């Protein structure tokens, strides 16, 4: 109005013409102009936001940067990075990028089948490979394309064409025990226990977890990114971290999530308590939570009939637990007590045993520590909760997490924050107690009451027997590999993950005399609501390297084969991350075929193949929280999981700092062909042999550089290098 110009190019005047008659009669001409300008500017603002989000979504759909060699970045990628930085928020909230993340693409069926056949080539004889190739070709030409069309239709309206089916059919519909088979664990520091006082450790741990929840609710956590880049990762899995429980059903379980609860559920010596962690609207101090926990520890009241082993219902088969829950826990005192557990922020077990590495048998102690976190006594954990923390008598702690709501990196992020906040920010007094003052007028922790009939007690005993047999069969071996770490591996210009995965192939070959289908978990969180994809680590290239080493090929040939295997593994990992994997696509095609009631011999055979070597790396995502230079003993042990196949191994590893790799190996005693300790020794030997092989190449190279004649220029050694 004052500049006598119209930046809207006549749109404000158009809006003014279409204003309601009531506004025309009640507003002056100047007032009508202001209302029209406000309407225009609001529409312009919303349009700009949508355009910026669409542009960022298009930019984040570009993944070629991941396949470029280190130090050789193309001009297109440089421009792309600049544009991503310009369109990204300077101080983004946790969920700021969610609507800008691209959707997971559906790969071409021809490409998936080709990659599948390449992955099984080293595992099959010529005759079996020919048969599988014929099955694949028949599937592609007939049923495959029809299933693909249905899958593409789903991808048009679904946020992620995999995740909902993956959650339902892989996790929630499983009727076998989730203890060991699905749940996984996380450990405390390896060398350090911040306090030997059980109640104090519980106080700081619970406080740290609740501080994380506060940050999560306020979106104050930084969005996760691909390490070393500005590329955001999906944060959808964080939404159901707290106040979440998996409730059993006859055919399928259900994940239930509630609004923030102001209490946690606590188990101690066969008794359940509700512990309020807020009082008069404020979060209790660590010292006050310690005070309340100590009250529970000092309570000498006995457990009620049927209460002591009640948690075994969550450790056994799902159908009996579902029926008991419907019949005996849907009303009255049992429902109120069960609600207190299921609606709690999380579950806390105050264990009456000492755990950790210290003692006369450090190796055996670590193994027992892992088994305790994985399954405990089978009745002293509530395996349905999104996660449960365990505080041992000597101050050690740990975590057991249910798998359906999120994958390990999400829980690892929470656990890193908890350990760092506990040790470095909250701290303890000189005598090992939490800091802060205590309001001694706090109400007592509330004891939960139960009315457990004999039918439920009979089922509890039955579920406990099933769970106990499963727990006794698990063979765990946890060991820190200290010979070298990622620092020395990177000096050889090799990906640490590729180095370890090839080492696992060599170790398995020596242990079992052959190769097997190998599962390495990769994330697909570059896409909205992405979860995981499988990297089939046993490739033709890795098999050729292993055979070369075992058949006595020359060191030069073995080094060449290793480089090919390493490059191939990195390519497979990048393809899995960028939506070009194999297994999730085939899984979804199989689900479509089941919906249509059509049998596919090819898909049935593919999805029935056992994963005898299941592996996963636990990433360290917040190294800045741990000052390893000044506090080198504060090293995390990572976590692990049970074996996927009855005759196979589960291997989890975490690369800590520059000089250590911690391994968690699991198998089953019932299989005479597997032994976790034997396989662990083979892993150590394989890694040492590969390092010796590659280091010899560096020594030879250094020697040749040192022999350059006096007449050479100074640039010649660099050229040779």
Automatic annotation (TrEMBL):
Span of domain Choline/carnitine acyltransferase: 104-684
Annotated Gene Ontology cellular component terms: mitochondrial outer membrane
Subcellular location: Mitochondrion outer membrane
A single BP term in Gene Ontology: carnitine metabolic process
A GO term for molecular function: carnitine O-palmitoyltransferase activity
Topological category with respect to the lipid bilayer: Multi-pass membrane protein
Membrane-spanning intervals of the chain: 34-56
UniProt keyword terms in alphabetical order: Acyltransferase, Fatty acid metabolism, Lipid metabolism, Membrane, Mitochondrion, Transferase, Transmembrane, Transmembrane helix, Transport
Family to which the UniProt record says this protein belongs: Belongs to the carnitine/choline acetyltransferase family.
Protein name, UniProt field: carnitine O-palmitoyltransferase
Organism: Betta splendens
